[in-house]
Write a structure and sequence with these properties.
With 326 residues, the protein is α/β, with parallel strands linked by helices. The chain contains 13 helices and eleven strands. Strands 6-7-8-9-11-10 form a six-stranded mixed beta sheet. The protein has a five-stranded parallel beta sheet with strand order 2-1-3-4-5. The longest helix has 16 residues. It is globular and about 55 Å long. It binds manganese (II) ion. Manganese (II) ion binds next to loops.
């Protein structure tokens, strides 16, 4: 519960703050917002960032240096992980429990499995950034901590699709207004997050759109992205982020799906698995389908990753869709 989490912040002195694997704007924005908050109450807080931060999120760092690994001998009173719904989404190289101390989860997803020692999930919040503002209030801070407005605004703008999704409440908009009053620049954030595309990303969009297949009497649009398409376009995986939303744009489509060949590097070398990203226009609950495929997520946005080929993944997806639509 929130009191337990506030106690961690009050009683500890030195904290590590991490994002989920492949950080997005909500995860990184809420991590930075929390770091500024912890510092505002006199604590030491460090960002754990073992992965490359996507170019579109670099502006959030604003000089913050993340640790790619924890130096030998360092110990933390607690480690916070932001916006994480499943253990598999812990960042690579997440330190052992003797280094991290208790792991505190701050999130707004319905949990997929248990991760963390102390968990605060507010599934009514549109973004983990909103949950951080609850912590700021719970800690009794009079105003938003210095430097927290832009990352928290970016977190909320990103997870609400620019205050468009059904998760956007009057409270979300009020928080948005407070963050603007505290100095966040709406166009700067929107431009960085949504509008500064590289030419390769535009080529990739064109290639992905060319793969669209309408299924289930036009209720589903399925697209794909292969390693070959990425190569030909000169694109990288970060550029695939958000592409699934185009499948949902078609009138009559209830579920948009993107099948995505994904390279996995492990001790055995490199192999290709398939990510399946799902988006609902509103009625359909895609978390049901993702969960049936060993994944998870929200009603409107869910995903899974399967260790099978893209064609096999499409077959499994179509089988689940057949069940879902009865
Ligand atoms: Mn989120």
């Amino acid at each position: 519960m929130i009191e337990q989490v506030l106690d961690v912040a009050r009683t500890g002195e030195r904290f590590l703050v991490a994002c989920h694997r492949r950080p997005d704007a909500d995860s990184l924005g809420s991590a930075l917002g929390l770091i500024k908050t912890l510092r505002a109450i006199g604590k030491e807080a460090t960002l754990f960032m073992p992965e490359k931060v996507p170019d579109s999120l670099l502006f959030l760092l604003d000089g913050e240096q993340g640790l790619a690994e924890v130096p030998e001998g360092l110990r933390y009173d607690a480690t916070w992980v932001m916006d994480i719904a499943a253990k598999a989404l812990l960042p690579p190289g997440f330190p052992s429990s003797e280094v991290t101390g208790p792991v505190v989860i701050i999130d707004h997803h319905h949990a997929h499995d248990d991760v963390g020692d102390i968990v605060y999930r507010d599934t009514d919040s549109a973004a983990t950034g909103e949950v951080v503002i609850q912590l700021i209030e719970g800690l009794g801070l009079e105003s938003l901590p210095e430097g927290s407005a832009t990352p928290l605004y970016a977190a909320i703008v990103s997870d609400t699709g620019g205050f468009r999704y059904a998760t956007t409440t009057p409270a979300t908009l009020r928080l948005g207004a407070r963050l603007l009053e505290a100095g966040a620049d709406p166009w700067h954030v929107a431009y960085q997050l949504f509008e500064r595309w590289e030419p390769a990303r535009l080529r990739l969009l064109s290639a992905i759109i060319a793969t669209v297949e309408m299924a289930f009497d036009g209720r589903v649009a399925i697209m794909r992205v292969t390693r070959e398409m990425l190569d030909i376009c000169g694109a990288n995986d970060d550029m695939v982020e958000g592409m699934v939303n185009y499948a949902r744009r078609v009138e009559g489509v209830e579920i948009g799906a993107l099948l995505w060949e994904w390279e996995v590097r492990d001790a055995a070398g490199v192999h290709v698995e398939t990510k399946v990203s799902l988006r609902s226009r509103g009625e359909a609950d895609v978390s049901v389908i993702a969960t049936a495929l060993n994944g998870g997520g929200h009603r409107a946005a869910a995903a899974t990753q399967l260790d099978i080929t893209i064609d096999q993944a499409e077959e499994r997806l179509r089988a689940e869709l057949t069940k879902y639509f009865g």
